[in-house]
Each structure stands twice: as structure tokens, then as C-alpha cells.
Amino acid sequence: MKKEELQAIIFDLDGVIADTVHLYYKANKKVADQLNVSFSEELNQQLQGISRVKTVELIAAQGNVHLTVEKKEQLADEKNKHYQALIKEMTKDHLLPGIQLLLEDCKKQGIKMAIASSSSNANTVVDALGIRPFFDCIVDVRKIKKGKPDPEIFLTAADQLKVTPYACVAIEDGEAGVKAINQIDMVSIGVGKHLKEEDMNFHVYSTADLCLKTIKEVFEKARKGTDYNSMYTKN
């Protein structure tokens, strides 16, 4: 395979493949309510891709609430248990628009695929959605020493796929994840209106706008130093 050809796509999970953002909101809101801190959907979006303990810290900071290490860990554990109860009800209906077809096309064309999620519940969600056969690897976040925005999880995914970062596209909906991708030699695609277009190689408002043909074109343009965003008109 030529060096400039796309070999692999690395996906974040929540907000890119799975419609779980509203479930995270419920779990995070419960923490905020316990701390008597206001919590918004905007803040919830900013917390995507961040570890559980760090999420608790940031929620507490909204109300200038000081927490001991033990209390942070307790709230993080309670939040995770609440989220785990919510995801048990997930089905294929929680796949985001266009994702099933994208995964099928990648598989048919021999594009390797990995999941690089900060969630320790990634395997549970993947199984609930019935999409495990599509993926060559799911990075175990428990073995990652530095969370997003550090790029370790994306580099680990490329290593497990046995491809170079240069041959990869990574897709994210979280600001921390996009920052991580942009620190390494991968092409970045961001999903969601909350992201800033100039911070990535390509930006879509919805996963419905993602297809393999477009992703390949984005990759090729990025490798040639061309701005694909300027060529694309969002609906």
C-alpha cells in the first residue's frame, strides 16, 4: 500500500459512534446535583473524553467546591455505576446516523478500525450496539497512563493496528480528543457544532455527513497540504 493511502480509521466512541452524550449528561448531572452545582449541556460536552475523576473535579470547580481525594473517587465511582445502569438499556438504535454504513464500507474496503475511548465502559457499549466484529482493536483505557488531550491512546491504537500514525484518520467529538490528535501525525476529523472548525483537518456537524469516500478525500487533501474544509459546505 502506498504511503499516502489511508490505512486505518481510529474512532472515539461516545458522540462519534454511540449516541451516549445524553446518558453522560444524566450521570454528570447527578454528581452536580449532589454538590449543589449548576450543570449545563454545554459543560457536559466539554467533559467528553475526560476521565471520571477529572470530570468530578471540573464539575466541583464550577461551584468552587473543594473535595478530598477520597470524595472525588467516591463520586466518580457513583457516577460510573449510574452510567453503567443507563447503558445496559442500549441497543443498535443508539448508533449515530450514518455510522453503520461507514463501518460496513470500511470493512469491505479493508480499512482497519480501532476505538480509542476514554471510557472504561467501551466494551459494554460496543457489545450492546452489536458492532464488535467491525473493529480490529479496542484500546484498553485502563492501560493508558495519560488521558486525552495527551495523544497516548491514539498512538496505542495505531500501534495495535500495526500502522503508522501518518496512515490514520482519527474521528473525535471532544475538544480534548481533537487536541490529542493534532499533536501527532494523524488527520483529524471533528464531529459537532460545538467544535471550532479551524482546529481540525475536517469538521462536520453530524455523523450523517461522514462517509468513507469523503474521509478518503479529506485524508488525501491533508497529505497534500490542501484545506478540505474550505471545499465543503455544511447543511
UniProtKB/TrEMBL annotation:
The keyword Metal-binding applies. Mg(2+) binds at residues 12, 14, 172-173. Its cofactor is Mg(2+). Substrate binds at residues 12-14, 47-52, 79, 117-121, 148. Its EC number is 5.4.2.6. Keywords: Isomerase, Magnesium, Metal-binding. CDD domains: HAD_BPGM. SUPFAM superfamilies: HAD-like (SSF56784). GO terms for biological process: carbohydrate metabolic process. The record marks 117, 148 as: Important for catalytic activity and assists the phosphoryl transfer reaction to Asp8 by balancing charge and orienting the reacting groups. InterPro entries: B-phosphoglucomutase_hydrolase (IPR010976), Beta-PGM (IPR010972), HAD-like_sf (IPR036412), HAD-SF_hydro_IA (IPR006439), HAD_sf (IPR023214), PGP-like_dom2 (IPR023198). It holds the Pfam family Hydrolase. Belongs to the HAD-like hydrolase superfamily. CbbY/CbbZ/Gph/YieH family. This is Beta-phosphoglucomutase.
